[in-house]
Amino acid sequence: FKQKTAYEISLGLVGSEMCIRDSSSAVLGPLCSGTDAMIEWQRDLGQAERAFHGGHQIGHVRLVAGTSFIETVRAAMYATVRKHAFRIDSASFLTFLFIDDAFSDIRLRVSRDQRTDIVSISSQRDEQVGWTTHTEMRARLREPAPRNTLDRAGSQLRCSRHVSKESFYGAIGNNYQGEFRTAQESWVRAGHEVLSRIAFDHMSTEPFLRASAWLDACNQTGVLLSQPDARPSSSIVASELVGRPYFAAGIESYEILTTGSMQTRAMWGHHVPGCSSIYNARLECAVQIKGGTIGTFEPGWLESKRVRRHLYCVEWCPLKDTATPPEC
Q1: What letter would DSSP give residue 2?
Q2: What pLDDT is stored for residue 83 in this prediction?
Q3: What is the DSSP string of 47-88?
């Protein structure tokens, strides 16, 4: 069940004596250990959650979006410090968290170093010895500057090229599905500005999952800045990116300006060189990402590197004796 009342964690209660009872428990799981130096949570990645994140595909490979880790960092911050705006000023994306193997269990470990403010996210599969670290992010509370509001009408006037949902997802090399395929339309001023409308069908998704989707979907369309050619006959992304899988390789900072994960059914992504801002339906800025960079793969390369396990059913049948045994 969900406990609606949030409270601060007492570090004196650790291990089996204490389990996070606010909304962050769905993200973090139970507290495994806690000291003045380090706090750690562990939980299993459930099938429903894996199915949801399976909509995020680099090429055709299902893996957890790097932006989804921001929501985990949010939960760790709220559980150990307080519910407040914060800034991730250092982020290292080390390995992908693949979820394309339906036969293995995945256990997540989230730890926060109280001395350095670094949140680490790792996983362990059922047959694995040790842990694989996927990301390390340093997050600290900050007093946000007065939040700006989106000048939607002004941006649409400046951006003369309209890109439909079908055109965008047809041009890129990632097979986004489900709530990760929700960039409905974009307005583009070649090489200078992109405005995108993201819309979801309902508001019944778990808040921490929905935040993963709007963070990623709003950020996807920043790739439209790659095309400097304003002619209608040009491709909507740079020619070298057409049909090529891409992913977030790094950032300078994330500014988390609102404390709510769910936000609104409609969201807006606004991109200019060096900065991406995400707005809710009230046109309030919820997240600002600075200095984002992307990496790319050759089409089919990531798929070729994945090892797939197969289960076989073997049925033993008695051998029929059709021949006459030889005489001694």
Answers
A1: -
A2: 93
A3: HHHHHHHTT-EETTEEB--TTHHHHHHHHHHHHHS-SS-EEE
